[in-house]
Structure formats: C-alpha cells, structure tokens
Amino acid sequence: MSSDGTLTSGPSPLRRPFKGRIIQVMDALDYGDAVSNQALALDRLLLKLGYDSVIASRWVHEKVLARRIDIDELEPEDRDVVIFHFSGYSAHAWARVKQWRCTRICLYHNITPH
After folding, report:
1. Which pTM does this prediction carry?
2. Cβ-count burial of 108 within 10 angstroms (0-12 exposed, 13-18 middle, 19+ buried)?
3. How far apart, in whole angstroms, are the C-alpha atoms of residue 22 and residue 107?
4. Which residues contact 92 (CB under 8 A, 6 or more apart)?
C-alpha cells in the first residue's frame, strides 16, 4: 500500500521465484516402466515450466542416460526440493534421501508391500 492509501502491485509472497532445483530420486531410471515414464514426464514438464530439474538414480537404462545423474554424486542444497519415488524398498536411495536437509516429498506408487 502506498502512502496515499492506494494498493500497489508488488511481488506476492506466494509467487517468489524458486531458486533451487527439483530433484527426482529413484533406485532405477529404466526405459518403458510406469514409474520411470512418470518421472521422465514430470521432468519434461518441470523443464518446460522453467525449473531446474534433474533425475538421480543408482541404476539407469542406456536409453534414458542423458536425463539422469548418479545418486551418489548428488549433494542437494537446503533450497532444493527432492521428490523420492517410492516404488519398492530401496535401502540405498532411502539412506541418501533421509540424510539431506532440503525439502523432501515422497511419491508413493501404489505398490502394496508384502
């Protein structure tokens, strides 16, 4: 609000520019399975919207290697957001995700554990 009482437009606290990366983490980025297809589609959407997006995994199929980094080389910053694709138990990926201090989201892929 200006000194004369009129409303002024300014940056909304809800529309602050996001400065971090959006990192999808999964045990394996494969070619053609549903979980990997969803991660790749989300990655394309995030990139199209202008976000810094990357997929990190332990294993990768050579056909999707270009969109992936190794999970063991990843060091997220506090401002990053990690989306952990839980599609089965992965001790290695979960151990990495739970040690990071950034915002973490678990995306459960509706696979009922035994």
Report:
1. 0.79
2. exposed
3. 13
4. 27, 58, 71
- CA diameter of the chain: 66
Give the Cα separation of 59 and 14 in Å (integer). Answer: 37
Q: What is the pLDDT along the chain (114 residues), one digit of tens a residue?
A: 445 555 455 554 445 567 899 999 999 999 999 999 999 999 999 999 989 999 999 999 999 999 899 999 999 999 999 999 988 777 888 889 999 999 999 998 876 656
Instruction: Give the separation between CA 76 and CA 74, rounded to whole angstroms.
Output: 6
Taking the alpha carbons at both ends of the chain, their separation in whole angstroms is 58
Distance CA 29, CA 37 (A): 9
How far apart are alpha carbons 65 and 18 in whole angstroms? 26
Q: Which residues pair with 57 in a beta bridge?
A: 26, 70
